[in-house]
Amino acid sequence: MKALKLFLIFMLMLSVMNCTKESSEPTSPDSNNPPKIISFSVTPANIFIGESADIIITAEDPDDDPIIFEWSKPSKGFLVDIYEGSARYVAASAGDIILTCKIKDSKGAETVKNLTIVVKSLDTTAPIFTSLSTAKQTIGVGEWAVITANAYHPKGTYIYYIWTTSSSGFLEPRTNTANFIANVKGEAVITCTAKDLDGNQSLKTISLNVIETDNKPPVIQSLTSSADTIKVSNTATITCTAFDPNGDPLTYTWQLVASVADMLTTPEKNVITIKPRTVGTITIKVTVYDLQYYAAVKYITIFVRS
Hints:
Blueprint: H1 2-24, E1 36-43, E2 46-48, E3 52-60, E4 67-71, E5 78-83, E6 86-90, E7 95-105, E8 110-120, E9 128-134, E10 138-140, E11 144-152, E12 159-165, E13 169-174, E14 177-182, E15 186-196, E16 201-211, E17 219-225, E18 229-231, E19 236-243, E20 251-257, E21 261-263, E22 271-276, E23 280-289, E24 295-305
Parallel strand pairs: 2-8, 10-16, 18-24
Antiparallel strand pairs: 1-3, 3-6, 4-7, 5-6, 7-8, 9-11, 11-14, 12-15, 13-14, 15-16, 17-19, 19-22, 20-23, 21-22, 23-24
């Protein structure tokens, strides 16, 4: 009987041990996933020696683990202003520079991203751009944007600027600045060329994002002259008829484009009077603005005879 009791106690203890062992054994976790890169950019991707490029990498971890960014030292040049997934590269010599960033999670899984920056040697005979910028990268259809170019010549010689665009809109060059009004939504690309008197040149482009907005630009219905041809010292009256789709009050600015003539009235309203001083042609430009600085532009030409 005693032996039976001992046997039963032993079996009971063994059963308890097995139960305890089964409940405390951890389950196998899912396999750890490495961080995932969401986006990356290098701006600009082509630079000259001495210039810099901004690099931005965004990433996340599928398992919601914390992540860190480890930037490798470039073979040429310097990485500065490093903060998590952003850094600035300063070029010291020409060539294709590969920048490497490792994104690691807290469990050791990692993703590697290589980014290439093209560094060019300076052409000491051509102007060098330091910037081509605008205050607003996104504008509405009909909105006025001012683009500013800054460039210098390594030899200190005189440079001038040529502005062009293949985008639908109005481009008005003014030395190192240009005004642009977009006619349609989408991407508008404006090119500026810095040129010296020997023909050496450099060019730079800027892209604007043009969108539809609630505010609509003014509409010029007509621009007419009291006479298509006038004599020297006679006068002509130019009238602009326009309206604003949003009902805003309008402002008119007038300009004589490469013309020898006098404007006899203050160019504030929709009507002006001009008086030519020489034989030839007179081109008049009117710009109509609303309160949001959206604008419309139109030209008219008058012939002048003796």
